[in-house]
Each structure stands twice: as C-alpha cells, then as structure tokens.
Amino acid sequence: MYLLTIMSAAAHITLTKARGDTSHLLVEAGLALFRATESTQALCLAADIGRSLCGAEAGVLLYRPSDTGSVWCAEAGATVTPLAVGFPIPDKIIRIDNTSTRFSTPALPEQISLKAFRSLLAVPLPRATSAGAGAFVYISGRTVAFSEEDELAVSVLASQTTSCLEAIYLREQLSRRADQQKEHAKRLSELAAIVTSSDDPILSKDLNGTITSWNNAATRVLGYTPEEMTGQSILKLIPPELHADENLILSKIRAGERIDHFETTRLTKSGERIPVSLTVSPVKDETGRIVGASKIMRDISNRKRMEESLLQAEKIAATGRMAATIAHEINNPLEAVVNLLYLMRPMVTDPQGMAYLETAENELARVSHIAKQTLGYYREHSSAKLSSISDLVENALKVYEPRCKAYRIALERHLDSNRKIVLRQGEMLQVISNLITNSLYAMPQGGTLTVSVQDVSGPQDAYGPSDGVLLRVQDTGVGIPRENLERVFEAFFTTRSTIGTGIGLFVAKQFVEGHGGSIRVESSTARENHGTTLEIFLPVHTSHEPQSP
Question: How far apart are CA 315 and CA 312, in angstroms?
Fold first, then answer.
C-alpha cells in the first residue's frame, strides 16, 4: 500500500519539479513524509523524493536507527534492504561533478552498485538522538549533474526526513508505552482481584506501621472495615505485650528482609485473641526504595485446636497406660486389705463400728471395681442395673460427711427422688464423688454444700428429653472465673496447682454422656454471691437399658 503512496507522491513531485517550483516541491515532500506511519515507508518515500529533487539516475538512503547497529538501505522506488552492521555512512556533504567509476559494492542494490557514474551527491541526515544516522547517496552518468540548488534541496529534504523519523519514533514509543501501561493496569487489576478475593487477610503498611490497605478477608477475620483501619496504627491489632515484635518486624523490612510464617497472636475488633501466621514482605517504589510492607495473615485457630487435640489425646493415652500400671500394682495390696476387713468383722460388735466397717468394705469394693475396670478385666455393661440416684448419693455422703464437719462445711441434702433407672453404679458413684470432692476443695474457709436429687418431667428443655432424674451439687466456694468456665470439662485442665489432675470432670462428662445424659456448670466469683452449681440430668431410659427384641 505504501509503495502506491510513494509512486503517487513521486509523480506529483516530478511534475512540480518540471514547473521549476522547488520551494513548493519541498512543502509537498514534507507533507508526504509526515503522512508516513512506518520508518521503512518514510525512508523509501524520502529516497524517491530526493531522486526526483536532484534528477539523479539512481540513489539510496542509508540509515542506521538509534536503537540498533544494523544499517538499512532504502532504494528509490523499491524497499528497505538490510546491510552489514559496520557499513559506512557519509557524515558530511560530498559532491563529485566529473569522474568515471562505479561503487562495485555487492551489499548495495545492483542498480547503484554496478552502474558507472560521473556525478555523485551524498547528503547526511542531521543527527538526532531518536532518529539515528543516515545519508542520501545519488549518482548520475552525466557530468556536473548536481548543482548547489540540488544540494540545498536535498539538505532540506534530509532535515524533513530526520523530523519525520523522529516523529515516527516518538509515536512508536508512545504506542509501546500505552500498551505497557494497559498491560500494567491489567496486571494491577488482576493483583487487586487476587487480593480482594483472597481467603487470607492481606494488608499493607508504611514504614511507620500505619495501615494503607485492607482487604475483604481482613474484615471477615478481624472484624474491622477498611474505613476503620486505613490510616490507623498496626499496633491496634497487636496485644500490648507483643508490641516489641512490631519494632523487630519493621527493622527487618527496612533492611529488605522478608519474614515467613511468623506465628503470633492478633486482636479482633471484639477483643478476641486469635493465633495467626504472618508473612511480611518489603514493598518498593519504582526506584527500588523500600516504602512499606505487605502482610499476609493466616488464621491458624483450627490448626492450633487440632494440635491441642492431638496433644490431649497423647496425654490421655499416656495417662491410660500409667493408670493401668498403677491399678495392677495396687490390686494385690487391695485384696489384702479386703481380706483383713473380712477377718476383722467378727471382732467388731458396736453397731456404729459395724456401719463404718460396712461402708469401708463398700468403698474398697468400689476401688477394686475401678482398678479392674482400668485394667480392662471386664466390661461394666454387664453390671448396669436399676438403681436409685438418691441411694448412690446417700452412700457417697456417708463417706464425705465426717470431712465436711472437719472443714466446717454445712451439709444439706434434698433427696426427693425414688425413681430407679438403669445405670452403672460404679461410674455414677465416681461422678458423684468427684463433684462432692471438687466442692469441698472450693471451700477452704468453710461454707455450705447442698446436694439434691429430684424427678423432672414435662416439655423438652435445655437437657433434651425432659423425663428423668436431676442431680444438683451446689457450693458456696470461691467460684470459677468466666474465662475458665468453658474449659472445666477439658482433660488435664485444672486451676489447682498442688492437687488434682484435671481429669475428674473430663471423666465425669464421659460417664454421664455415656448414659445418654448431660452435665452443665454455672459459677460466680462475685463478692456477695459466689459459688458453683453442677447439674447432671439422666433420662428415664438410659443408653445402658437393654434393648427390646
């Protein structure tokens, strides 16, 4: 297409030349050049116009672009041919009027390299940083073929050509830059979409710790909106005792270091502390200067809970092995004590002594039962039978009543249930004893222990099926702090550092739920009204009741 443009422009310029109007010819040439959209098109057009201007028989425009070492050869009326990298380009005006020679340079087009000439005109392009270097080279078989007017006209054309090439270069640069900006904007848009849709909180901050961006996941995990946190200090999310960590993080960022998988704790809007894993990277500007940091925060609460569960399971397994060993070791002396009590029975004639002896035998039988159960000698399911919770509580209170008197603890009992349900007596005695023991330890300065058993029936309530027996153990002890209340049924959790293993209520909960029942706790540490209440609900039909065929 551009060859047609060259031919049309050259024809028009030749006609104008014939009329002798060089100035008008150069104006037309400049307009034709500035309509060119590509460098190769402009070079070929300029070579053709120059030949028409000076009346040369043949000629080329040699050109070396500023961003490459190769030389282009634009032939008048033809196309651009690449030459060797080091091909020489005239750097000053040369006009030869009477010679007889030829170029004999195979690299040049044949019509100029093999053609004998008597006149030569070489005019360099004005040097420009973005346009590169070049020169018009024209030949003719006539002597004195090129005049000073031709030399001046081609020099003006050279200036026009340089300006045209500069314009084309700038347009290409602007086009490339626009494409780069579009690509950059596209990448930024993609990155913004990734940040926005990420499941992990992603935020950025400057080197003073001021938050500059906040994504949707940060709002979901931490509770704050972008408007609430942008411009705020990052310390708002960090517990006071961990503020020193932020200084360490910022010092590493300023040094250009990256921080990977740093596990710590952060504060939510509600004040909850959550375990997180941080990855912090320096943010640089276009000059490479560090101006801030990007932070990816992963909530690892679930992982921590799993780790704690695994650790607890390992502790339980280890405790089970230890309990089995202890049970094995105490089994023989336990049998000896049982035999000694049996031999002692004929010697005790006092009614109260006989009652104490019977209670001791019952308690020893329970200890023996627990030891055998720990060793796995038999499944207690075979011993599940109809029993009264009131009777089990009364038997347990006989054991703990003397201790209550010694600790100045008033004992109140309200055993208003005669309902019998199928249960494992050993397990439930262990549950009742554990609850009473905990209450006694909670009242070191004395107090009141109230134990009640009652039948419940009616519509479904917080316990589930409402027909059953409710056991309540209530004390006026020091109470359980609110932060510990949800953990009292966890294995190995205890607030008593010198006594207790932290498995009593854990085991009690397993036994109660194993019967199809439920257990719950309420407590207060208030000065005027403190104490703890534990309630156990057992349904009329427990899990150990024989199934109908």
Answer: 5
Under a CB-based contact definition with an 8 Å cutoff, are residues 436 and 396 in contact?
yes
Q: Which residues, in sequence order, are bridge partners of residue 96?
A: 120
Residue spans of alpha helices (H) in 457-496? 482-485
Query: Residue 273 corresponds to which tokens in the numbers above?
Result: 């502390």
Alpha-carbon gap, residue 506 to 512, rounded angstroms: 10
- The predicted-structure confidence for 96-121, as pLDDT tens digits, reads as follows 888 877 776 666 776 677 778 889 99
**Cβ burial, residue 19 (10 Å; 0-12/13-18/19+):** exposed
In the numeric block, the tokens 């336990």 are attached to: 334
Q: What is the DSSP string of 3-45?
A: HHHHHHHHHHHHHHHHTT-HHHHHHHHHHHHHT--SHHHHHHH
- CB atoms closer than 10 angstroms to residue 139: 26
Q: Encoding tokens for residue 89?
A: 């380009």
Q: Are 50 and 154 in contact (CB under 8 A)?
A: yes
Burial class from Cβ neighbours inside 10 Å (0-12, 13-18, 19+) for residue 490 reads middle
Question: Which pair of tokens denotes residue 467?
Answer: 């027909």
Cβ atoms of 109 and 73 closer than 8 Å: yes
Q: In 445-470, which positions are buried (b, 16+ CB within 10 angstroms) versus exposed (e)? A: eebbbbbbbeebeeeeeebeebebbb
Q: Report how far residue 491's alpha carbon sits from residue 495's, in angstroms, rounded to the nearest whole number.
A: 12
Q: What is the pLDDT of residues 258-285, one digit of tens each?
A: 999 899 999 999 999 999 999 999 998 8
- Terminal C-alpha separation, the chain: 98
Secondary structure of 245-279 as H, E, C letters? HHHHHHHHHHCCCCEEEEEEEEECCCCCEEEEEEE
Start-end of H helices in 345-424? 351-375, 389-406
Q: Are strands 447-456 and 409-415 parallel, antiparallel or unpaired?
A: parallel
pTM confidence score: 0.43
Residue 178 Cα distances to 34, 39, 67, 164, 254, angstroms: 22, 19, 19, 21, 33
Calculate mean pLDDT across residues 515-529.
90
**CB-based contacts of 353: which residues, under 8 Å, 6+ apart?**
none
